[in-house]
């Protein structure tokens, strides 16, 4: 099978129609979202959800985020406490996923939630929201990559990785945020951060007046298995907080920071010449893939500040650098 690729800048209506047809047949479709490309399937259809897990080679204990077109739709499937509601109103549509009690019998299949009594919900922007509206049912969608690999931020990334396993890839251009959604769970009025992502922790604290509680250590719990230690891994090994380059290494840096031995770098990728963390997040996965494509076996990455989107960038880099299983 070779995936059909439809570009929404020229064929948006056709993309919506074809995607709805493939979804209704029970197959996944790769779609653009503002964070990363998703592998979307009907969240109420067990055969379709099974195909997501098979296509990605994803462990089935790792639940999927269910994407909705609007808050009213989300409320049909999950129960919102007041803080979650406020977060939804502030950040949706956008890169925030809320873990909420699932409404039993609402129709979301237990394969999507891996049997949990909660469901991860988010409202994406743009084409993805239009597609869900047109299809009329929630779409379960993990990132559209082989499990454990780097998430795709372009249709090309998806086609290179999964093109021979998919019927349809929708091309919506480069994903503007570039890292996955922030995953948050409200527990007795406190905010637990399960995965840093496209909405910065500081923004969430400002909007709610509550403190965001960070996970205790890397991969302390497999509650949000984006927390599996080795994840987002390129083929090359990754060395963090580099202040020098060793022979043959590719360098990924943030602006023109001083780096010893830079002339030895096999290639240099600058996440953001001006040091802008949002721009760096948008480029991160593409540059990891490009660094890999040079054939180098090691990637050195300079220090990235931990504020704003830097928290999500550092989280993904730590996983990319974690020992492989
Ligand atoms: O930006 C994103 O979130 C992208 C786009 C496609 O929307 N999706 C994404 O999905 O990153 P995925 O499958 O790669 O990551 C979903 C994460 C996993 O770590 C999973 O464990 C967690 O969400 N998750 C889903 N449902 C959960 C639940 N009920 N409780 C705890 N964690 C949950
Ligand atoms: Mg993923």
From TrEMBL:
Residues 13-199 form the YrdC-like domain. Its EC number is 2.7.7.87. SUPFAM superfamilies: YrdC/RibB. InterPro entries: DHBP_synth_RibB-like_a/b_dom (IPR017945), Sua5-like_dom (IPR006070), Sua5/YwlC_C (IPR038385), Sua5_C (IPR005145), T(6)A37_SUA5 (IPR010923), TC-AMP_synthase_SUA5 (IPR050156). It is found in: Cytoplasm. The keyword Ribonucleoprotein does not apply. It catalyses: L-threonine + hydrogencarbonate + ATP = L-threonylcarbamoyladenylate + diphosphate + H2O. It comes from the Bacteria. Pfam families: Sua5_C, Sua5_yciO_yrdC. One of its GO terms (molecular function) is L-threonylcarbamoyladenylate synthase. Keywords: ATP-binding, Cytoplasm, Nucleotide-binding, Nucleotidyltransferase, Transferase, tRNA processing. Belongs to the SUA5 family. Required for the formation of a threonylcarbamoyl group on adenosine at position 37 (t(6)A37) in tRNAs that read codons beginning with adenine. This is Threonylcarbamoyl-AMP synthase.
